[in-house]
Amino acid sequence: MNILLVGMGLIGGSLCKALKKYTYHTVTGCDRNKDIEIQALREAAVDRTFDGSFDGYDVAVIALFPEAAEKFFAENAAKMDKKTLVTDVCGIKGEFSQRMKKTAEENGLRYLGIHPMAGKEFGGYYNSTAELFVKANFIIAPFEDSSADDVKLLRELAIEIGAGKIVETTPDNHDKMIAYTSQLAHIVSSAYVKSPELGLECGFSGGSFQDMTRIATMNEKMWTDLFMQNRENLMFELDILIENLKKYNEALKNSDCERLSALIAEGRELKEDNLRHRVGQPN
């Protein structure tokens, strides 16, 4: 297929490299930073760079922040080849996907959102890698009236670039689950590093500290956009977390060893049950 990648940051750049390494598709890269396009050509991460024409593409992947993705699609949908399947890799779906679908339908196009669950502490093309999606979870978020062929096409692309578990879900359920599994964790990490002890941790930290703080280096523009577009789901999860933290705090204030032990045991048992449930689940 002929595939257009719009936006060559960490995800877009990694998609370019993965498609070139693991498939025989023709990849066209498009980025507002022309130096990145040139670098991608030098590295053979793309076959060519975007020349301004949207003709002849089977798939167009918009790998931009949500607000920028909507703007790009709205400005260019009328120019796109009617046979092109348009997708995005944003970490938000829900109403965002509804708006993207509306733009597609108004211009005789097909749209279906995806979300590769892969990333790194630092973004940008120069941190991208062909292996980013290997064994990573990959979400496809079709609508009730989405074409089965389009879902199959995106599923096959995910398999080709090495994705692990591939999940199909509605755009709304995507946002509900991502609020808990991804966005809440990013808020916790951001808040956690605000202790005055952060600058003194060298030599005192281990794996738990690294795990908790790794994603605090997130891009504030992108994640603010993601958080605000999913704020109701995220506030729901944040309220639950705050209430649970209060229980630990109260047990400590009251020197209640029995209560604290029970809280810790409850968390351990829930996680152990979660791990047992994951074992043997099909990809």
Summarize the structure.
Helix content is 51%, strand content 12%. α2 (34-42) links the parallel β2 and β3 (48-49). It has 283 residues and is of the alpha/beta class.
Written account of the structure:
- There is one protein chain.
- With about 280 residues, this protein is an alpha/beta fold.
- The protein is about 50% helix and about 10% strand.
- The strands form 2 sheets. The protein has a 6-stranded parallel beta sheet with strand order 3-2-1-4-5-6, with helices on both faces. The protein has a 3-stranded mixed beta sheet with strand order 7-8-9, with helices on one face.
- The model has no long low-confidence stretch (mean pLDDT about 95).
The total count of strands amounts to 9
Distance between the first and last residues' Cα: 25 Å
Helix content: 40-55%
Helical run tally: 10
Strand content: 5-15%
Q: Mind telling me the C-alpha Rg?
A: 21 Å
Lateral strand order in the biggest sheet: 3-2-1-4-5-6
Low-confidence stretches: none
Write down the overall mean pLDDT: 95
3D shape: globular
Elements, N to C (H/E): EHEHEEHEHEEEHEHHHHH
Which class best fits the helix and strand makeup? alpha/beta
Features:
283 residues, alpha/beta, six-stranded parallel β-sheet, three-stranded mixed β-sheet, 10 helices, globular
Task: Indicate the topology.
Layout: E1 2-6, H1 10-22, E2 26-30, H2 34-42, E3 48-49, E4 59-62, H3 66-76, E5 85-88, H4 94-106, E6 110-111, E7 113-117, E8 137-141, H5 148-160, E9 166-168, H6 171-192, H7 207-213, H8 220-229, H9 231-253, H10 257-278
Parallel strand pairs: 1-2, 1-4, 2-3, 4-5, 5-6, 8-9
Antiparallel strand pairs: 7-8
